[in-house]
Fold:
Amino acid sequence: MQLTDWLLEHAEPLKPIVDLVIFTNPSVVIKSNHNNNQMLSRVTISEHLPEKLEQLQASYSVEKLTKMT
Structure:
């Protein structure tokens, strides 16, 4: 909540906050016992970071928040 409050006061317009896990070691193997696609979609290796950023940019391309005066 503190980050959101600070951004509301200082950032214009407010940007979405997205959590990502990026592994920089190219030989890392990502395994999961859970079938949680939402969680797994936030984990990637640095080689795939440009594509991940493009996906995020496309999903937030429409402004959904307005500043209240």
